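Lab notebook: predicted structure, single chain.

Context: the supervisor wants predicted structures on file for every construct in the current expression panel, including those that have not yet been purified. This is the next one on the list. No modifications to the sequence; it matches the entry in the shared construct table.
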Amino acid sequence: MCRKEASIIINTKDRISRLYVVLKALEGQVDDSMEVIVVFDGCSKETLDAFFSMHFCYAVIEVISVTNVGRSSARNLGAKRASGEILILLDDDRVPCKDFVKMHIEAHKTRCILLGNRKDVHLPEPVLQSMMSSEEKLRDFTENMEASAVTAFDSHDKLLRRILFFRHNPIIWILFYTGNVSLEKNDLEKAGFFDENFKGWGYEDLELGYRLYKNKIPFVKGVFVLNYHLSHEISVTGMLEAALKNLRYFHTKVKGDILARFVIFLLAAPLYLRIFQRDFIRSSVLKKQAGKLDTH
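Prediction complete. Output recorded below exactly as produced.
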């Protein structure tokens, strides 16, 4: 296999319109020293047919998992297929800014893990669909993303990063979110790749970040290495329970590290609260419905 300078790895699950915009935004940024790998994680025939009808000015390497194996396994499939010395992990709904790939690569002149920035852009699905058939609309969007973007201001992607990003931070690993991050493939191999025991949503990236931190790899903040998150509605059905299960598993892996165990407890606390609130509301609604039935 011919070695490349960098591999851009994207895993996806039936979000073809967003994936199309992301891949189009990489045009002009990818040359022969790089490769783009898309892992189709249990995608439908309709998604695959739509993708194979698309055309890009660079070759896309497809890795197809017939069954949905989940984020950890999908990332590993892409990473193990990659021939790049640098791995750039990108989500299928994160549109890269101009010179995104170049900035990631340049950061690795010295060994590091580069953490990029994110802003949110809200586009209804019909608008995304229209971009798939109109190069002009797509070009207008990608050239003017900043005008419609809002700074991501939530505990995971902005505020927490600003508060916690300082030199020799012992919990810097909680900033390792794989929507916009790069690292050397050799470092990922030494860390043991993503732990595939994480199932469903959440925290497989932070746990890998913890192992990379323990391997003493410097974390670097790429302030201008920006991508634009195409925000969308998220169904939380089953997500909270899966996230808690993953956190409990993560907790078992850091025995002896009191600080890490405390951080995981802090991450779990709001999830327990949300589940309590959800179940309390459900119980109240059921009681009201039962009361109405008793009166008839």
